[in-house]
């Protein structure tokens, strides 16, 4: 002990002698500055880890540039011009909108007001990419049937299990029928496929991500969750990452515009909770290699979600019809969850989707149970507490009215329409098809024309298509509405290509310059700000 005490005294004397050369204020400030610098470096490294070196440096440069007097005001002014352009007529569309209750109610006369407002909607029949999946007109056939079903159960709410038992049964049967289409009857599925209905594909994906996060936390103790998606995966995963505090890795697709399993493998680490595949992906209609992703998920013990929001009610029937469809459902080992929209090709009312899980252990992580609320014990399966029973009844009516034969017939119609469209596109030399579409979404671009200018001309002809980026392209999602108008679409497209070819340059009132500029803008944060400003002024 005396020896140790001597060493301590010797060290103290040596340290005091060395530090005596410095002013006391320096000795006080230096540790504080060192701590601040360390915290700054830690924060900087965190940002670089999240965003990458190049985007981080660019972000710092632009932030400093905005500090120059007048620059921020100029940028805000230019952003507002773009927002007004995106809205076509600025904020004038909101003129005359109600901002308070009428003094005297309109009574049943409100239906006339509804009809008047509806008449102002654009002509969508057969002209919109996706959007409306049911064929025919609103006043007859399948439209009329699901409208009646929705109206019959408009007052119901499955939150009240003991009251609206019919709707509870409808939901269970919709889930079971959807699961049967996606592999629940296969022995390799494990026999426990289960799920719930949600308000749409985004909520289904949110629920799958949340469940995967909590399941992997319970199973592996992961507290800093990460998920890996191909760049073609739906933007709902970005929402999930923000809502649930999950680090998101975007991985480039391969030359066929499919998820690159080898690239995804390089991003898997001890914090990975989920990898993602789509069947097909929204941008280009191409099915990812689900079997390869399943092998990765099984090997590394992580969850795998398959986005079948578009394909859930097409691919099972297309496979039965003999189309070359690769494996995509719970028959693939490693798939832990699936989302499938009933309100798309299931031909159900808008606001109906299904999220499925391989077993109840995973699904339980979706639920929220509250035990300490003074309002009583509470448990809810999805994000919403109260849910519209009318939509559930409408979805049940759609599935039961069409049956296997009805869906097979409709699938044949839209798959053949897709083949006709692709054949016609190949005959337009100025255009090329992105990848090899597996289903009914067909994307196309051009090597020598501004495809967004082509889109503007098509818009002037009444078509509403989706503009894509990386590469610049547009796509159409074929529905039953398009089956009788494929030839008309191709004629308008040929004419639009010819117009741009003969008169290249922005179309008056068109959005091509904005799309083009946004795609080239290095500061993606500024593009995000533009979108937020647009949304803020639109709703």
TrEMBL record:
Pathway: Lipid metabolism; sphingolipid metabolism; Sphingolipid metabolism. It is an enzyme of class 4 (lyase). One of its GO terms (molecular function) is sphinganine-1-phosphate aldolase activity. Keywords: Endoplasmic reticulum, Lipid metabolism, Lyase, Membrane, Pyridoxal phosphate, Signal-anchor, Sphingolipid metabolism, Transmembrane, Transmembrane helix. It comes from Heracleum sosnowskyi. GO terms for cellular component: endoplasmic reticulum membrane. It is found in: Endoplasmic reticulum membrane. Gene3D superfamilies: 6.10.140.2150, Aspartate Aminotransferase, domain 1 (3.90.1150.10), Type I PLP-dependent aspartate aminotransferase-like (Major domain) (3.40.640.10). This is Sphingosine-1-phosphate lyase. InterPro entries: GrpII_AminoAcid_Decarb, PyrdxlP-dep_de-COase, PyrdxlP-dep_Trfase, PyrdxlP-dep_Trfase_major, PyrdxlP-dep_Trfase_small. Its main location: endoplasmic reticulum. GO terms for biological process: carboxylic acid metabolic process; sphingolipid catabolic process. It holds the Pfam family Pyridoxal_deC. The chain crosses the membrane at residues 25-45. The modification N6-(pyridoxal phosphate)lysine is found at residue 344. Belongs to the group II decarboxylase family. Sphingosine-1-phosphate lyase subfamily. Its EC number is 4.1.2.27.
């Amino acid at each position: 002990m005396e020896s140790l005490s001597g060493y301590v005294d010797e060290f103290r004397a040596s340290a005091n002698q060395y530090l005596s050369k410095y002013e006391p204020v320096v000795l006080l400030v230096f540790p504080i500055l060192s701590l601040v610098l360390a915290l700054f470096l830690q924060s900087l490294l965190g940002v670089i880890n999240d965003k990458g070196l190049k985007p981080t440096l660019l972000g710092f440069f632009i932030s400093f540039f905005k500090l120059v007097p007048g620059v921020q005001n100029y940028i805000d002014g230019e952003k507002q011009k773009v927002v007004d352009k995106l809205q076509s007529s600025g904020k004038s569309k909101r003129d005359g909108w109600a901002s308070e209750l009428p003094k005297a109610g309109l009574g049943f006369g409100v239906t006339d007001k509804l009809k008047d407002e509806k008449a102002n909607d654009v002509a969508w029949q057969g002209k919109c990419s996706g959007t409306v999946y049911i064929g025919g007109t609103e006043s007859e056939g399948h439209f009329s049937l699901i409208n009646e079903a929705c109206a019959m159960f408009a007052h119901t709410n499955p939150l009240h299990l003991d009251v609206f038992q019919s709707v509870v049964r409808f939901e269970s049967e919709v889930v079971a029928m959807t699961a049967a289409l996606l592999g629940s009857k296969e022995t390799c599925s494990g026999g426990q496929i289960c799920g719930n209905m949600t308000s749409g594909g985004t909520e289904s994906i949110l629920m799958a991500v949340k469940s995967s996060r909590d399941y992997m936390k319970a199973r592996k103790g992961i507290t800093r969750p990460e998920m890996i998606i191909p760049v073609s995966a739906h933007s709902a995963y970005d929402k999930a990452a923000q809502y649930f505090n999950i680090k998101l890795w975007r991985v480039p697709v391969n030359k066929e515009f499919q998820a690159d399993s080898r690239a995804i493998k390089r991003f898997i680490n001890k914090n990975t909770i989920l990898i993602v595949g789509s069947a097909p992906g929204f941008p280009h209609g191409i099915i990812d290699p689900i079997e390869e992703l399943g092998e990765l998920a099984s090997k590394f013990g992580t969850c795998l979600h398959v986005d079948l929001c578009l394909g859930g009610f097409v691919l099972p029937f297309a496979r039965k019809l003999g189309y070359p469809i690769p494996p995509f459902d719970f028959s693939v080992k490693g798939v832990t969850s699936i989302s499938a929209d009933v309100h798309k090709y299931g031909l159900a009312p808008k606001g109906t989707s299904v999220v499925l899980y391989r077993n109840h252990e995973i699904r339980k992580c979706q639920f929220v149970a509250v035990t300490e609320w003074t309002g009583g014990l509470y448990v809810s399966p999805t994000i919403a507490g109260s849910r519209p029973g009318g939509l559930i009844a409408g979805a049940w009516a759609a599935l039961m009215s069409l049956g296997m034969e009805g869906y097979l017939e409709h699938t044949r119609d839209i798959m053949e329409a897709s083949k006709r469209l692709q054949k016609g596109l190949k005959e337009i030399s100025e255009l090329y098809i992105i990848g090899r579409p597996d289903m009914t979404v067909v994307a196309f671009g051009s090597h020598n024309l501004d495809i967004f200018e082509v889109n503007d001309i098509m818009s002037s002809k009444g078509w509403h298509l989706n503009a894509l980026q990386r590469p610049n392209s547009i796509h159409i999602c074929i529905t039953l509405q398009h089956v009788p108008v494929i030839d008309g679409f191709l004629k308008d497209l040929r004419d639009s290509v010819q117009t741009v070819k003969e008169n290249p340059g922005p179309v008056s009132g068109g959005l091509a310059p904005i799309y083009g500029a946004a795609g080239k803008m290095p500061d993606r944060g500024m593009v995000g700000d533009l979108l937020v400003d647009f949304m803020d002024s639109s709703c």
